[in-house]
């Protein structure tokens, strides 16, 4: 399977890396981004490894963030990426 990021998830990803660069430096941002990318790859290979969330979504925790995603016949769609301290989305 292939992974696709929604516009919201893509904006979340960029914001996470921007924050990490400002707070911890470029090297740490690269490491964190690589970890998120690896998580997306794992989800593509093992779509059911995340836990169910609401009726049609799943969630997967990567360090400080929660990846909300949907399984389709051909893709894993990353819907949103939130910090673990943020409330879960009402309807991602």
Overview of the structural elements:
- The protein is an alpha+beta fold.
- The chain has one domain: YaeB-like fold (2-Layer Sandwich).
- Helices cover 41% and strands 32% of the residues.
- It is built from two helices and five strands; from the N terminus they run βααββββ.
- A five-stranded mixed beta sheet has the order 1-5-4-3-2.
- Strand 3 and strand 4 form a beta hairpin.
- Helix 1 packs antiparallel against helix 2.
- The longest helix is centred in the middle third of the chain and has 20 residues.
- The radius of gyration is 13 Å and the shape is globular.
CATH superfamily placement: RelE-like
Shape: globular
Number of helices: 2
Order of helices and strands: EHHEEEE
CATH class categorisation: Alpha Beta
Report the uncertain regions. none
Measured as a percent range, the helix fraction is 40-55%
Number of DSSP strands? 5
Query: What is the first-to-last residue Cα distance?
Result: 21 Å
Radius of gyration: 13 Å
Biggest beta-sheet profile:
5 strands, mixed
Q: Kindly state the mean pLDDT as a whole number?
A: 94
């Amino acid at each position: 399977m292939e992974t696709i990021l929604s516009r919201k998830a893509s904006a979340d990803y960029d914001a996470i890396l921007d924050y990490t660069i400002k707070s911890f430096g470029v090297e740490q941002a690269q490491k964190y981004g690589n970890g998120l990318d690896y998580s997306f790859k794992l989800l593509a290979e093992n779509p059911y490894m995340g836990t169910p969330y609401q009726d049609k979504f799943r969630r997967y925790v990567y360090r400080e963030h929660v990846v909300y995603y949907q399984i389709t016949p051909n893709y894993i769609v990353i819907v949103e990426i939130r910090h673990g301290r943020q409330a879960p989305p009402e309807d991602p």
